[in-house]
Amino acid sequence: MTHGDTTGDFEKSEGWLDWYDGPSTPTFRLPEGSVDAHCHVFGPGGQFPYAPQRKYTPCDASADQLFALRDHLGFDRNVIVQATCHGSDNRALVDALQRSAGRARGVATVRRDVTDEQLAELHEAGVRGVRFNFVKRLVDRVPTDSLEEIVAKISPLGWHVVIYFEAEDLPELYDFFSSIPTDVVVDHMGRPDVTKDPDGPEFELFLRFMRENTNVWTKVSCPERLSVTGPRALDGEQHAYRDVVPFARRVVEEFPDRVLWGTDWPHPNLKDHMPDDGLLVDYIPQIATTPELQQKLLVDNPRRLYWPEGA
Ligand SMILES: O=C(O)c1cc(C(=O)O)oc(=O)c1
């Protein structure tokens, strides 16, 4: 099913794939209190317009639809990450946080001229981090001195920095990333090329980055984005994305206290298929193979980072 060709006054990017309606009920039972630590809301465009400088126009994906998915899959909470199609206009994110009854935290995008008052408002709404994006097809590069200014403004609030980049860009960005004094969370394992050897130099550089910087965490998410050979999380497939498993499992086992997992719903910019989110949850035991690792990945770690006050 599609969710309409237009979203408010907006026309979806050509070839846009809509999120999967009617996901299956996962076979894997999530531990109590599990957090979907990477997901987004899109618009709705009629209410929260997409940013003029966006690189894509999505279908709508509202907070209510996200919360329905949360309940269906068996998650307790969400971490909602500002999507690039909203630029630094965090209104859709803030609205979702405010309607979550404390069950969602947020990661915002801010500009260097953000004021302390604006940051305080975001904090009040539940924002606990900012996202810096280095993926060229999604954003224009922001100079590092701007980013350093933002870090200086957000660190007194105890926030962290989420970074999104592709593996081939890590060598160039390594020193800047290592200089960030707050906690740092890497989206989607720094997007390894999974056709390469998980023991080879490219992924080893990422592992070294995590070893050398004990403030760095990562999301072992997005197998549907990274996989080349699948099989896809569709049609009841219980062992999806096998080519990504050795990478994610390696990270979960070496850094069990610094990993997070999220659905990435509504899966922006997928080109060849849209996964069944129920089957994506069934992927988790392939990468976190014991109840202890699952508890850390899904409950203890995200709560330590996003709900450190408990409850
Ligand atoms: O790879 C992507 O296209 C992508 C895009 C966004 C975003 O637009 O914010 O977020 C993600 O986590 C992944």
Automatic annotation (TrEMBL):
<dbReference type="InterPro" id="IPR006680">
    <property type="entry name" value="Amidohydro-rel"/>
</dbReference>
<dbReference type="Pfam" id="PF04909">
    <property type="entry name" value="Amidohydro_2"/>
</dbReference>
<dbReference type="InterPro" id="IPR032466">
    <property type="entry name" value="Metal_Hydrolase"/>
</dbReference>
<feature type="domain" description="Amidohydrolase-related">
    <location>
        <begin position="35"/>
        <end position="306"/>
    </location>
</feature>
<dbReference type="InterPro" id="IPR052358">
    <property type="entry name" value="Aro_Compnd_Degr_Hydrolases"/>
</dbReference>
<protein>
    <submittedName>
        <fullName>Amidohydrolase family protein</fullName>
    </submittedName>
</protein>
<dbReference type="InterPro" id="IPR047874">
    <property type="entry name" value="GLI/LigI"/>
</dbReference>
